[in-house]
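Predict structure. Input: Phosphate regulon sensor protein PhoR, 265 residues.
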Amino acid sequence: SQPTKILLQLHPYGKKRKLMLTRDVTAVQLAEAMRRDFVANVSHEIRTPLTVLSGFVETMQTIPLEEADRTRYLSLMSQQAQRMQTLVSDLLTLSRLEGSPAPGQGEWIDSGELLQHVVQEARGLSEVIAKPVHTIEPVAGAPVWVAGVKTELLSAMSNLLSNAVRYTPGGGTIRAGWQVRPDGIGEFFVEDTGPGIAEEHLPRLTERFYRVDRSRSRETGGTGLGLAIVKHVAQRHGGQIEVESVLGEGSRFMMLLPASRVRVH
Ligand code: ADP
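Output follows.
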């Protein structure tokens, strides 16, 4: 819908038919350019771990290795394979979200249950990536019920929490919970004491493969697709994402759901 707006402003007095035609062609060209970008990005993301992986295979085939080195190599290779698996899994999630019609009301779910689930998972992740000093706190408030697709909501919540875990240095604090705003809108929030994000990056964060710091994202197993997934889930439920961040202090990511999908008991 964005390209349409731009063109209508550029040609406000064009003949209607011509305008339609131009608009369609432009939309098609833009879609094509985006598709090309996407394919280039995916290829690049796959090529990197693949290059590392085949490099190790070649080394192991040509040089006899000590047992310790062999073990280390295999572990690094397994990491690269894991990285490709995560990428493919995120790509499939994204394509399912983009390709299927928005869900209806879905089922009413106890948000406390969802929260427990993703907090447990985040604690596990924090141990795996060796930042066990994190405090990951579920924030208990009034019990909130949300209507939607459980797997999608879990996936969005889990992506926001895992970002907080991955970007917050050891010793940091992460708080997450559901609450209802005064206007009835439901808010899932994740606050961290991580590095924060400079303002100029905020509008682009949900673009596929957009990263503020490429190497930091990769180091911690990021695919660059997490926030794109969260955005789609929010939009499919009639909601959106909000971010507040202060460089050097931390970030607060919020997934909002419309009042019609939220109840407090
Ligand atoms: P990635 O897999 O790279 O984390 P995401 O789409 O989840 O991809 O996030 C996009 C980018 O937003 C990240 O690469 C990172 O630069 C930034 N980001 C996301 N969450 C946080 C956070 N909690 N603190 C700091 N930066 C973040």
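The first helix runs from residue 2 to 10.
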